[in-house]
Amino acid sequence: MKNLKTGVTIFQLFLQKVISADIPLVLLRPREISEEISYSGDYDFFVHPHYNHELLKIMFELGVETGTSFSISRKKHAKVDINIYDKEDNKVIALEIWNFLSVDDPYGRTQRYIFPNILQQHIQKDKNSFRLSLEIEALYYLSHLYTGKKKITTPLVQERIKYYTLMLQENHDEYYLLFKDLQEQREDIKKVAHKANIILCSKGILKEKNLLNMLEEFPLKYWATVDRTRRMLFKKVRIIPVEGADGVGKTTIVQKIIDEDKKHFSSFRFKKTFRSSPLYRLFLPLLKRRVTKVVPEVEIGKTEIDEVYGEFVLFNALLLFPFRFVSSFFSKKTVFVDRYFDEYLIINLRLKQRKAYLRKNWQSLLKFIPRTYMIFHFDAPTEKILKRKDELNKEGIEAYRNYLFEIYLQKPYRVYTYVNTDTEVEKSVDLMLKIIKGEV
């Protein structure tokens, strides 16, 4: 049996599941997958945005199945990053998944983007992977060298130039000569990249720059600018929700972080936000009587009332939570929130006699729920959670786990991290701190 503790093995399983699901995820540049190579640098992929959710669901299901922690970051427009963390020492395998390709022509004669609908038409499938044709992959690599301001002298670039030169030497004279000229320094990267862009234009993959084509790429530029501005604002909100079923170790891990650095970290419970509302206190006796009639089989407390009347809870929280947002702009502390709005979009979580499900109007309610920059979703094997706490039954734990991710997909955070806590507390603490500080 494969060692499921290594990030490399999880990465390989992820790619296998993607192929099995017939998702055309394309590796843009050749890169070996191995214990020696995979933990340095990153893997660049292209996929049509239509497949984003399906792709992320595969990663989530794999994380749950194998107990693997991972992050999903959306720090650039039309780009998703997935970091897979090794179980032993939190080493990272980084995947950068692009929904379009950037082009910076040296002489400004082409569009700045290759759009997904065009690129999708040039993807080929073999037994083990999807890929672009060798010619297009090679031409885009030359263009990328200039766009990414890569140094030709670096070992990795030299290795890839050598690879494409070797692959193109038969039956691809025009493309082979471009790499040969670059390899032997007969032409610089500026001229070679421009020639590659012109060939891409002749193939209909890239378009020449004109007024009509500039108008076509304007929406992408506009939303990229809007997205960048939003990201900068969200990053200043030092509030981090921590969600997960009781028994996954949220309190233990968060408290350890705070105890070690009280100057920069603190926490509060989300339910205190709405339960302190005068409106909530006023209506509580009435709601309790009504819930007793709806759910006569259980003893009714505030938790049961909050679950049944989640819309009322969300309304009260929305009235008061903005004060937390504003104060966080001026605070030097990062504040962990134990649970968040998302949980109250699920009904019957703690009513074990009933099936948990998302509220019928959950998508409408979600539109009003504020998003922070990042969130941590804590989890562990269902059997372990049941041994630690008896708050939820097996069906409730699994519903909670899956619905939280479904809610995330509908309205993403900039950084979503799934933390499997079936390991030493110190490893979970180390991983959280690295993610918060932007070290991984």
From TrEMBL:
The protein's matches in InterPro entries, at most eight in alphabetical order, are given as: P-loop_NTPase
| Source domain of life | Bacteria
**What is this protein's record name?**
Thymidylate kinase-like domain-containing protein
Source organism phylogeny: Bacteria, Pseudomonadati, Campylobacterota, Epsilonproteobacteria, Campylobacterales
